[in-house]
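Take a record:
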Amino acid sequence: MDTSGPDIKLIRPVKSIFIAAETRCGSNYLSAIMATTSSLGIPLEYFSKHLIIENANTATERYAYACNNSISPNGVISVKLFPEHWSMIEGEIDIEEKFPNRYWIWLRRKDILAQAISREIALQTRAWVSNTEPQSDPVYSSKGIERWLNFIANSEARWRTYFARNAINPFMIWYEDMILDPKKAIIDIARFSRIEIDPASINLDVHIKPQHTLLKKEWKEKFINEMMDINRMDKIISNKRYKFSLKNLALLWKGKLQEP
């Protein structure tokens, strides 16, 4: 589908749902169930540079694709957003103009250490969803886990700042609660967004399932035993870029590169 041509007529949404999230918080599972209702849109990471969407490359083209392919019959569009997606959105998409009647759902995880471990394993195995076969066996890395722990903490801070600055009071859904009762999570989203849905339309038998393994529990115990230090305060990662140099490259290789 060519979404860039001047003659393309867009289907405009009448209501918008944003799933504010970060990696490894169950957003794929939640989104898949939302899509089964035919009333809550089809939430995908439309503005992720890592997601290939036909020939839609720019934010404008991806918005057009979402409008013409993912709006429910009742006019609802839903989008999954991570903080990193703003690198594509900013300067090109006017959220207030393109997404009317916005409702924000903040999907979070209480156990961010488990979230960081899940990210490290998924990054190594390339198995981001349950229906994907791992491409390799993961190898424990305390540095990798700590890196993603800080990354997720930074993401949480960015969402909190964004919501505070824009006077947004999002509806909070915790991953741990959603996994136990996904149907309730969907009903709560519909109620918060003032959308009528038939509870019988919620199909929990989706192709994506939560990924639970004993390995994650083992890694968590090992990480805590190895990294526990009550006398050290963690630093949240900076958004500044590293200056490219051979010296920094060598420090990165040795695992000694300090924060910018």
In short: Residues 1-7 have pLDDT under 50 and may be disordered.
